[in-house]
Amino acid sequence: MSDIRTLTFDEIEALATKALIASNVSAQNASAVARSIAAAERDGQAIVGLSYLPTYCDHAACGKVDGHARPRLETLSAAVLRVDAGTGFAHPAIALGLHPLTEVARQCGIAALSVGNSYACGSLGYFVEELAGQGLVALMTANASPSIAPFGGKTPFFGTNPLAFGVPREGREPLVVDQSSSVVAKVAVIDAYNRGAALPDGWAIDANGVPTNDAAAAMEGSLLPIGGYKGFGLALMVDILAAGLTRSHWSFEASSFGDCEGGPPRTGQMIIALDPKLFAGADFSARLEEMLGAAQETPAVRLPGDRRLEARKKHREGISVPAAVVETVERYAREGSPKLPKQ
Amino acid sequence: MSDIRTLTFDEIEALATKALIASNVSAQNASAVARSIAAAERDGQAIVGLSYLPTYCDHAACGKVDGHARPRLETLSAAVLRVDAGTGFAHPAIALGLHPLTEVARQCGIAALSVGNSYACGSLGYFVEELAGQGLVALMTANASPSIAPFGGKTPFFGTNPLAFGVPREGREPLVVDQSSSVVAKVAVIDAYNRGAALPDGWAIDANGVPTNDAAAAMEGSLLPIGGYKGFGLALMVDILAAGLTRSHWSFEASSFGDCEGGPPRTGQMIIALDPKLFAGADFSARLEEMLGAAQETPAVRLPGDRRLEARKKHREGISVPAAVVETVERYAREGSPKLPKQ
């Protein structure tokens, strides 16, 4: 039997939906999360795809995330919207605000969507790409449970605190930048640990602040921010935008995204959308293509997101997933998470 | 005779104003630039202080920047303002928009100030700190003449493209993050070159893309972005916000900030201001202090901007500047820039 199974986007989405529903998630919430899981697999981001889904299911089953939460949208001002995720999944909460955000951004030229009391949102690129697909420039931040030590410190304090940026392109898929404030995302360390692989230099320090290549020691220690104090500065900025301004837990107060302890993490997301037509007129797209074209004059140059678009193209006929991963999710789809209370 | 001269903030401001006016800058424009020069010296950022002023004067004298430009403010929408700097200095252009921006941000909760057709603005922290002093959270980007190669490339394409972030603090000076997308700002390489000092590892590559410690070779080559492709992603984001959305030259189109060739660089700045009271309610400040206090539990931890605040404190009684630097500026104040056309 093959170690690889090939599935369509729709099959992955359906399977993920089933596994979530079986793990105590409402159909509507399951659907929003499952779509992002299928998109991650399609875009070659397996690390936040099907292999990550059991964590979502376990967290719904143990109550770390409320699978039946109904996010509530409020209007704070002419240009600011807020969604309270109610300790539910981030995906349906963001989905609820995304369409109103596009309308307000077109009216005001700039607008913000604050999502508070929320949970891990997976790939930020997924959301900014949707806004860029609507013709808007989008900036998004999310905070997370602690994994980066402050500059000069040893103990995790900020989350990997990613920043994403989406820009519409004429007749092409949007340009998407999506990067954590740490050298790598925490899921990459967990992935190395699960595979028994050593970490490259410069990824992490152990609990004593000493650089380490050992994934287990890194999980006890801290991830390193990109560029030393500069990555720390970014993580701090992201925490203030994504948690401070969304009335959510700071990273240092958030329970772990990785286990069932400590109740809901109550982290947050902030999305700012700008209308490039208002700012820069109708020739924004043509000017952007001039710049991106010039950047790529050297064939070796890669734009952010290039690998994602290549994976997406490759996966048009089917998405290959390790059979063991599919089987695990199929078991969740049949039986629900093992963390569900016994009947 | 001492190698050091000690001046007050006001003396530096007055001297810088005189040197600019003598170099073909209007009194009003000179005053806005001179204030930022004095603030840089006060804050221990000598690299964009008096020693940088002769470049401003030379550029006004040779026409790279129009010292008599009168920036124009327009309202693009309920939440978006634009200033056309008219190839004049960035400081008076930003100053013109800053107060209206605070009003619009308080009305709408979020607002943007686009400054186009502009010039180098020195320290971004200077401007976001002013907004934070008005109770707003501020995010600012600026693009610059090329110094960073694209990821995979060898030739400078993006500017050092800094990003700054200012946050109000209750009863204290604002929190300010201000950092370039490159490992160091270009002025630091020029400074090393002028001092005949070797560059540390990891700052730059030469014209062939090979890592170098030679400041002269680095000036022919490229600065390295922070965290490899992540700094490149940031520089790209900054270029789109600060140039693309402000109808300015992309970094790759901008003439050098370092010499008199190629006419005005026509770069841009983008400032986004958010009202934390609207987003997060009255307890935003108290919550922020909880987080910043927790971050500093380890005595070795330094927050971004700490060094600036220490320098500011130290300089309350007087600011020490190398005598040679003061003498050069005094010569400019007497005679104007040597680049002025002969009478």
TrEMBL record, chains A, B:
Signal peptide from the UniProt entry: none
One example GO MF annotation: oxidoreductase activity
Oxidoreductase recorded as keyword: yes
Keyword Oxidoreductase: yes
Sorted UniProt keywords: Oxidoreductase
Gene3D superfamilies: 1.10.1530.10, Hypothetical oxidoreductase yiak, domain 2 (3.30.1370.60)
Annotated Pfam families: Ldh_2 (PF02615)
InterPro entries: Mal/L-sulf/L-lact_DH-like_ah, Mal/L-sulf/L-lact_DH-like_NADP, Mal/L-sulfo/L-lacto_DH-like_sf, Malate/L-lactate_DH-like
UniProt xrefs under PANTHER family: MALATE DEHYDROGENASE (PTHR11091:SF0), OXIDOREDUCTASE-RELATED (PTHR11091)
Identification of the protein by name: Sulfolactate dehydrogenase
Organism (species): Phyllobacterium zundukense
